Amino acid sequence: MAEGTLLTDDFLRQIINVGEVDIVVGLSTHNHAKTIGPLTAAIQAGILKCFPRERVAIINADGGSQDGTPELVAKASIDDTWREAKVYALRTLHSISVRYARAPDPGKALQTILAAADLLRAKACVLISPDSTTFEPDWLQRLIRPVYNDNFDLVCPVYTRQRSEGALVRNVLYPMTRSVYGRRIREPYGSEFAVSGRLATDFLGNGISNEDWCRMGPEMSITIMAVTSKYKVCQSFLGIKPHSTRDAHDMVAVMRRTVGALFSSLDSKFSFWSAISGSEAVASFGTPVQVELEANRVNRKRLLEMFSTGVVQLEGVLRSILSPPMLAELQRIAALDINKFEYPAELWTKTVFEFAASYHNSTINRDHIIQALVPLYRGRSLTFLTENRDGPEQDIQTREESLCADFERLKPYLLEIWADRK
Amino acid sequence: MQDIIVSELTQAFQQMARDIAHYLPRFIVMLIVVLIGWVIAYLLKMFIRSLLRLTKFSKLSENAGATLLLHQAALPSSTELVSRFVFWVAWVGFVLLGVSVLGIAGLQEYISRFFLFLPRLFVALVILFFGFVAASFVSRAALLAAVNANFRSSRMLSAAIRILISIFTLSMVFEVLGVGEETMLIAFATVFGAAMLGLAIAFGVGGKDLAREFLEKRFAAAGKEEKEDELSPL
């Protein structure tokens, strides 16, 4: 494990003072002063309500906040929660904040939290997103119980989303992971998830320190590693995923962290995924939360403009990545009017597969391949928004399932072009 | 009279025989050097070709856009081109080495100049190749960044970056080769300065509306944008 170089002396001292715990709750923050207070209170309430007998530590890995976020986490008193919940913890709840870097780095943050969990010999480690404004104390139980009681190694979340939310997860991450790795994990890139102590140790020792793809997107990679290393994986229904535009501002960074890590993992895990056909469900806990679906206002014209401009301006780049018929088809739809525009599921599936194959063969710089996918993703997002604007939730799920079926059906196409694409 | 003619002819023939006897071993040595040189150059070519294939040089060249350019110019692949270049440089070197064995006065200086020029030629070619790679990589990175930032003249920006890096590379190459150093330096400075001035004027005068629109979008309407345009991906 690499914690010797990663963790500061002061942080190690604090961990030694804590001793051993049963559960670690990890918070990776960067300027989250607005949301961290209520979230910490909800976490504490969850601990008091669901795990009053367990030894729990909150580990806050901060990426150089300027708004006093770490201080807010460290200061968070459990006394207030006690008074409100009228439940008393039987153990001391420790809260430790550490500044792992001056700028946010999701990989280092996760590494810091998992290293702390490993040192504290935690049986379960749960990661909570500081953007989770809809976090409820029960979420903690839903994430931790399968690891703590049922011996699962990874618990992925399942969220209830609004119509226009989670376009990347619904159009790439879920269908691609399901088709390639054969497991139906709805949120392979979860903002909240729980891991067992053994998976955390393995990920630290063999994943993030050895594999490039684990460093690219640690949250995505931990799911892939759990699936490919035959760990016990399940998913738990949580609740409503809050609308967050934090990631939308830098779509390229999100692509690198998610699709980049997924594409990159395909290289070293080829022998595993090439033998898989179809997919199987994973164990699910809880029940979906029913809400009235709303569509956020999104500038569809701008999305189409960004797609069309991307296809035109990046013609030379796309020619190095896509096959001529695929490029011709994209050029055709890029010229369509907004009312007639459609980026069909099959075309999108083939586009993603051709990008994955080109990424594998490094037809151009790999990071450039990921960047070139962004305008095309915007085009697919437009179709996704248009399709999901009205209608019942059942229709949305049917379309999602249909896209996943396309990804599974066309997997032989990926295998075919995997070695051929030059 | 007849005796004189016979004597002169005899002397001339003897001189010629002496000269031939003097040069013939050297000529044979030259031929041997050239022949051995050819074999060494050929082996070197095969070695370089294998090495380049092993290191996937063609992919690097393809990424840099050099392969497309060579294809358009009906030239062989970059791997073949480099290995052929090494062959010819090595063989010409051996040929000149062989010629130097002949001991022809005046030729020695040119031969030593050629050998002194070789390292510079090699450095110039390395600079040219990496300059080409850098121009292609940086211009593509700029194009992608500009497109993803929804910048309207992405291609123009990318082309401008490519041209500037190419000019800079060429000026470096000429400087290393010692060909028109000052001319190239002045030309580069002029082109670079003119391009910058042109861009400044173009953006200042022609793009004032665009700049205003950009600033308004960036600062004044930031809140509205966030509410309407952002699509949460995760």
Structure commentary:
The complex is a heterodimer of chains A (422) and B (234). Chain A has 422 residues and is an alpha/beta fold. In chain A, 56% of the residues lie in helices and 12% in strands. Chain A is built from 20 helices and 10 strands. Chain B has 2 domains: 81 residues, no CATH class; 88 residues. Chain B is elongated, with a radius of gyration of 30 Å. Chain B has 9 helices and no strands. At the A-B interface, α8, α12, α14 and α18 of A face α2, α5 and α9 of B.
Topology, please?
The complex is a heterodimer of chains A (about 425) and B (about 230).
Chain A: H1 3-6, H2 9-18, E1 23-29, H3 33-50, E2 56-62, H4 69-75, H5 78-85, E3 93-99, H6 106-119, E4 124-128, H7 137-148, E5 154-160, H8 167-181, E6 183-184, E7 193-196, H9 197-208, H10 212-216, H11 218-228, E8 233-240, H12 251-268, H13 270-273, E9 280-281, E10 283-285, H14 300-313, H15 315-321, H16 324-334, H17 345-361, H18 366-388, H19 393-409, H20 411-420
Parallel strand pairs in A: 1-2, 1-4, 2-3, 5-8, 6-9, 8-10
Antiparallel strand pairs in A: 4-7, 5-7
Helix pairs in contact in A: 3-4, 3-5, 3-7, 6-9, 8-19, 9-11, 11-12, 12-18, 14-16, 14-18, 17-18, 17-19, 17-20
Chain B: H1 2-54, H2 57-64, H3 66-72, H4 78-101, H5 107-148, H6 154-177, H7 181-206, H8 208-220, H9 222-229
Helix pairs in contact in B: 1-4, 2-5, 4-5, 5-6, 6-7, 7-8
> Roughly what is the average pLDDT of chain A, rounded to an integer?
86
CATH class of the largest domain in chain A: Alpha Beta
What is the helix/strand order of chain B? HHHHHHHHH
Q: Give a count of the beta strands of chain B, DSSP E runs of length 2 or more.
A: 0
Rg calculated over all Cα atoms of chain A = 22 Å
Helical content of chain B, roughly?
over 70%
The residue ranges of chain A in which pLDDT falls below 50 over 5 or more consecutive positions are none
With helices defined by DSSP (H or I, 4 residues minimum), what is the helix count of chain B?
9
Biggest contact = A-B, 44 and 25 residues
Silhouette of chain A? globular
Mean pLDDT of chain B: 80
Strand order of the largest sheet of chain A: 3-2-1-4-7-5-8-10
End-to-end Cα distance of chain B:
112 Å
Percentage of residues in DSSP E strands of chain B: under 5%
The main pleated sheet of chain B reads as:
none
The arrangement of helices and strands of chain A along the chain is: HHEHEHHEHEHEHEEHHHEHHEEHHHHHHH
Low-confidence stretches of chain B: 222-228
Number of domains of chain A: 2
